[in-house]
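Case study 2.
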Amino acid sequence: MPDNAFDALILIARPAAGKSELIHYLKSVPLDERVRRFHVAEVVEIDDFPMLWAWFEEDDILERLGLARLHSTPDYDLHNLALWHVLIERISLEYAKLARDPDLHKRHTVLVEFSRGASIGGYREAFQHLSDDLLRRAALLYINVSYIESLRKNRLRFNPDAPDSILQHSLPLAKMEASYRDDDFVTLTADDPEWLTVCEVRVPYAIFENEDDVTSGPPGPLGARLEQVLGRLWGLARRR
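Prediction:
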């Protein structure tokens, strides 16, 4: 790994808060500049949305074949709350497979992306399913937007022709209300403004404020804010 880049960076937030846009921006910055300004090396992504969407697609196929759906209802509600935790376990598994390469972190920063509303377990439960190996390598970036702002951007990015798209998928209002109205990250981290302890592993974290939607605007302001926040987070990570 470059001496001044994160091994792994976990990005969490409400839906449409700007996670994917932030990753898209980072990948657009030349590597040398990206490492220098943002402490992010060559990017490898692990996102649970494609895993979730694959379940929906497989269930649709099973239903067309006259078989029972395995994971979800026809309107894409998961059969069991525990399946949300399975997705986090899958993230850990994907990281473990990447980490078979002993040189992974000599060249790469692994970017992990997911959202968890309080009613589907929240981050308190989701973090319990991240592996210790990933947690020991990771820093955590929370993108903070209100529920109202999440709703606004969720509506704006809707593309009915690309429901499987990372940047253009959108949730129906009823699902947003049921699953993502409440977010437990602020209460989960209330006792410490810099460190979150998960399964006895101390993970540094920082909050990227995005109520003004800087992730949808010109790259200059986004880059300046991100450089400041990730610089602070990098300072914490180096202390671990």
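The first helix runs from residue 19 to 28.
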